Amino acid sequence: MPHELELAALKPGDGVKAIFRQTEGETKYGAERMWVLIERIENDLIYGTLDNDPLDMPLIEAGMPVAIPLSHVISTAFSKDNPRPQTPERREYWDRCMVDLCVSEGRSHVDYLYRENPDMTKEGDKFPDSGWRLRGLPEITDAEAELENAIQYIALGAVLNKDDRWIHLIDEAPGVAFQWDPEAQDYIRFDRPDLLEANDD
Predict the structure, then answer these.
(1) Where in the chain is the domain with CATH 2.30.30?
(2) pLDDT at 199
(3) What range(s) does the Immunity protein Imm33 domain occupy (predicted)?
C-alpha cells in the first residue's frame, strides 16, 4: 500500500491504482485493479479518468470519469514533472501471535489482548513468537470454542490487515493486557505481572 507521504504528494497528471467492482450485471471477475489518471484532488477524493480497459466489466471503459477516495488507492505512479517522494522503509509484521479465528477472519475486532513471554517458537521457525495473544468478542469465541481451528498461530501482519486499531500497542513489553472500551473508543490498560511467569499451558 502507498505510504502517506506518497498520497500527500499526488498531483494532476499522476496515476493511481484502485480496485473496481461493477455493481450491475454479471462479470467473470468480482473485482479488477485499474489505473486512474488524476485530474484533481479535493477533500481526499481523487477525480480523474480510467486509464485502462477492464478485462470483463462491460459497463466500464477507459476514459470514463471516476472519483475514488484516497484511502482506496493501492498503488501510485508519478509523472516526470512530479518525482516520487522519498519515504521511510515500511515496517513489516512477520512475528507470530495467537489469535481467535473470528478475529483473523474479520468477524470480530480485537476485543482483549495481552502479551506474555513468548513460548511458541520452535526450532527451525523462520519467524519468532511475539508473545501477543489476541481475543475476539466473548460471545463469538465462546460459541466457536469447540472448532478445531478456533485459535490460530499466524503473523501479526495478517491480524493487522483485519483490525489495526491496536497497532499503537504493538511494542508494549510482556506483562500487559488491554480491553477494548467501546465508549472511549480505545483500550484500557492492565498490568499483568503474572504473564511474565512461566506458562503452564
Answers:
(1) 4-77
(2) 55
(3) 97-183
Whole-angstrom CA distances from 47 to 25, 37, 50, 59, 69 are: 25, 8, 10, 19, 9
CA distances from 81 to 9, 16, 28 (A): 12, 16, 38
Fold of 4-77: SH3 type barrels. (2.30.30)
By DSSP bridging, strand 32-42 and strand 15-20 are: antiparallel
Backbone phi and psi for residue 69, each to the nearest 5 degrees, phi listed first: -65, 145
Could you give the angle at the alpha carbon of 139 between the alpha carbons of 138 and 143, nearest 5°?
105
Report the percent of the chain where pLDDT is more than 70.
98
Q: How many CB atoms lie within 10 A of CB 102?
A: 22
Query: Measured between alpha carbons, how far is residue 113 from residues 6, 34, 42, 137, 187 in Å?
Result: 32, 38, 38, 11, 9
Q: Which of 134, 129, 128 is nearest to 169 (CA)?
A: 134
* Cα-trace Rg, the chain: 22
Residue 81 buriedness (CB in 10 A; 0-12 / 13-18 / 19+): exposed
Q: Could you read off the pLDDT of 164-173 as tens digits, one per residue?
A: 999 999 999 9
